Amino acid sequence: MGCRFSKGPDFKSSSLNNDGTKGSTRSSASQLSNKTCSGKFKTKNSFDSKKEKETQKYGGSQRIAAQTFTFKELAAATKSFKEECLIGEGGFGRVYRGRLDNGQKVAIKQLDRNGLQGNREFLVEVLMLSLLHHPNLVNLIGYCADGDQRLLVYEFMSLGSLEDCLYDLVPDKEPLDWNTRMKIAAGAAKGLEYLHDKANPPVIYRDLKSSNILLDVGFHPKLSDFGLAKLGPVGDRTHVSTRVMGTYGYCAPEYAMTGQLTLKSDVYSFGVVLLELITGRKAIDNTRATGEHNLVAWARPLFKDRKKFPQMADPMLGGRYPTRGLYQALAVAAMCLQEQAAHRPLIGDVVTALTYLSSQTCDPVAHSIHTNRLGSPTPRKDRDKKGSGRLEESGSKRATRHGGLRSPQYQGSSDMRLKDQMRNQASAIANSQREQEGSARRG
User: Which domain of life is it from (predicted)?
Assistant: First the structure.
């Protein structure tokens, strides 16, 4: 499930109370903190469900309520936490499948009282998921802080995690197809965009990885596990200084070295997840050959040679993917994985590119056999007919003006030409989508 960089969570009173938070958020944090520290909630009696609601407000969002449960209720929902109900295990503790008295199926995460993560991360998780709501974030139904027990109750995600669906497939389970992978990538990016651009103050997720992306019916992705989330910088601040926490293989290099956390740290982690979706390789896999244990380290030299792009596609796809789509998806991943945080795109630009890619339906039959031509994914005469050169040029200029996918800082880079080509291609995706939408409106 990944290794933490640190033995404990980095949580200070200021984590939820910086200058950008609303007074109601501070008040809610204080109230809930007092409750978790006391280890006891007011109840009508030990057998009845707690009807108390925590009503909180985050920025300009609507008021919501998180239900509180007794330990007895959640034990009954999971058949006393029997092994047959166990569906996962992570740094927080074990996750069980359960059913509430009203018949609702839920996932119940129980804090490991001997584990490294404790009340502070429990508090952060409850606050974040109570205050933030989006179709691509998992829904928190309620929580339990009964005595020394700490449990979280979520909506049940029927397809498990992205990690489950990508790796170690059972013989009768089909691998994810290209269309589904791009849909998952676009949805996860939208969840991250909500945290970065819509939440006020912004939220840095800090632990984006394939095991934290849960999948519902139709492979609809939702981000989960917010125990390490931090409120992002506000005002003139450019970063948040914090103890290094996260999962090895997904952590941005500048954060790992300096402890300076920014929104672009999440963009790097997203690039690793996108690369996992494209290649079918784990972020860290010690079973592979020497030099291939770390996914990003393996991919970096391949990013520099377009002829090697087809080698990066997951063999489980069986060649059933659009060649141009593969090149464009790899271009987006490469930009997210830039070592310099300032050179990475904004998550909003990533959403635009991936939304376009996910809308381009791939016919598995039509793309089941690829030619051996290792040049551009589209013949030159076809590119000329479509005016792709002009499109890419205008796309790159637009992205540069808005601080998006193309960055002028690369002008001095030794492999500037190749990187510019990749950036132009990804910019063309966004520009093409805008032009299509404009044509539709004019029509």
Answer: Eukaryota
